Amino acid sequence: xxxxxxxxxxxxxxxxxxxxxxxxxxxxxxxxxxxxxxxxxxxxxxxxxxxxxxxxxxxxxxxxxxxxxxxxxxxxxxxxxxxxxxxxxxxxxxxxxxxxxxxxxxxxxxxxxxxxxxxxxxxxxxxxxxxxx
Length: 133
Fold this sequence. Notes:
Layout: E1 6-11, H1 17-29, E2 34-39, H2 48-56, H3 71-75, E3 79-82, E4 96-99, H4 110-132
Parallel strand pairs: 1-2, 1-3, 3-4
């Protein structure tokens, strides 16, 4: 790893789980960790229930847009965390790969998104400890 570790969060649509994870990591770690997110089949926009759920905890992701997963994004990251699309993430030697099994918030309301959001926050907090301590 470089002086500043880099993390890439990947989910299918880059409209929910990976966006929440990236937002939490940016919010909690600041500039100590470089953060990216992408999707194997990006949606047109962020899931509105996800935006609302993140607003509830003081994080505004309304300006974010889903991004396509590229080999360059994987290659330039120290840690790649997949969330339901592990088989489409390119594998490069020397990278650390994790798969977080999380429910997909697609098509679900705020009540269903909240526990997913909270679990992602817990996992991100553990990741920060792992990478920085």
